[in-house]
Amino acid sequence: MLNYRLQQRLYRILTQVILAVSSLIIIFPFFWMISTSLKPDAEILRIPPTLIPIHWNKGFYQELLNDTVFLRYFLNSLIVASTGTVISTCNSLIAGFVFAKFRFRGRNVLFFLILVTIMVPFQCYMIPLYVLAVRTSLVDTYAGLIFPIIVSSFGIFFMRQNIQTIPDSLLEAAKIDGASIWGTFLRIVTPLSVSAIVILGIFQFMTAWGDFIWPLVITNSQKMFVLELGLARFIGEFSIDYGMIMAGATLAILPVVVVFLIFRRYVIEGMTLAGIKG
Amino acid sequence: MEGATPLHLPDQGKPLRETMQMTNRKPISSVGEQTRFILAVLIPTVLAFLIIRIIPISQTLAFSFFRWNLIDGVGKFVGIKNYLTLFRDEIFYNAFLNTISFTVFTTLVSVVLGLGFAYLINQKIRFKSVYETIIFVPVVLTFVPVCLIWMWMFEWDNGFINLVLRGIGLPRVAWLSTPRMSLVSVIIVSIWKVIGYNMIIFSVGLKNIPAMYYEAAMIDGASRWTTFRRITLPLLRPITLFVMVISVINNLKVFTQVYVMTHGAQGGGAQVEVLVSDIYARSFIYFKMGVGAAESIVLLLVVLLFTLIQFRMGKER
Question: What is the pLDDT of residues A119-148, one digit of tens each?
Answer without folding.
Answer: 899 999 999 999 999 999 999 999 999 999
